[in-house]
Design a protein that fits this description.
It comes from Coprococcus comes. InterPro entries: DUF551. By secondary structure, this protein is an alpha+beta fold. Helix content is 27%, strand content 31%. It contains two helices and five strands; from the N terminus they run H-H-E-E-E-E-E. It has a five-stranded antiparallel beta sheet, with no helix packed on it. A hairpin with a 2-residue loop joins strand 2 and strand 3. Helix 1 runs antiparallel to helix 2. The chain is elongated.
Amino acid sequence: MNNQQAIDRLVEHLEWGWTEETVAAIEMGIHALKETQWIPISERLPEDESYILVSFKNSTMPDIARYEENDEGGTFYPGDDEKSYSSYGFFVNAWMPLPEPYKGE
C-alpha cells in the first residue's frame, strides 16, 4: 500500500462516526503521510527562502536544497551555494519538506 492509498483509506474511515479523539489522531496521521510525499514542482513550489529535499529529473540522488523567489520566478540552489542546480546541469522535478531534526530522548 502506498501513502496515497493509506490517506484515501483513512479519509473513508473518518465517515464512520468515531470519537473526536480518534478523528484527531487519524487527521494527524493523514497530515504526517502527506508531509512525507514528493510534491511535483508542477503542482506546488516550496515557500520562499526554505530548505527542502529535492529530487531531480536527470539524477537518482536526492539533495538538500534552498528555494528562493525573485522577480523572474523561483530558483533551487544546492544548500547555501550561490549557483543554481540548473547551472550545474541538474533539473529539479519534485520536493518535500525536510524531516524534523532528531532530538533524542
